[in-house]
Amino acid sequence: EMQLVESGGGLVPAGGSLTLSCTASRFTTDDYAIGWFRQAPGKEREGVSCISRADGSTWYTDSVKGRFTISNDDAKHTMALQMNSLRPEDAGVYYCVVRLGANYCTDPNYWGKGTLVTVSS
How far is residue 118's CA from residue 110's CA, in Å, rounded to a whole number? Predict the structure, then answer.
């Protein structure tokens, strides 16, 4: 079964930057999309960004457009999310996800355990 391991979370002041990484293991297909969900305390989990392995297309939720950049290193099965100009509302647990057989991340097949991002105001 595929395993996803996140890293890079931490505490950052508002306006700062963080890079989250996700390393995937035990891939059995090249047809997948990989991305991030996040969940803030007391809020529902939401999709943040996604990148398609097949065509490299990307998606960002409106609140992070222009501030976050997702990238994928196919050879290393590693994906990164560069987060700039962080806001307190960006804080939460960020989960790496994989959706098989699609170029979008809705209803992921696999989830990582999450990494905590804290943004101080």
Answer: 24
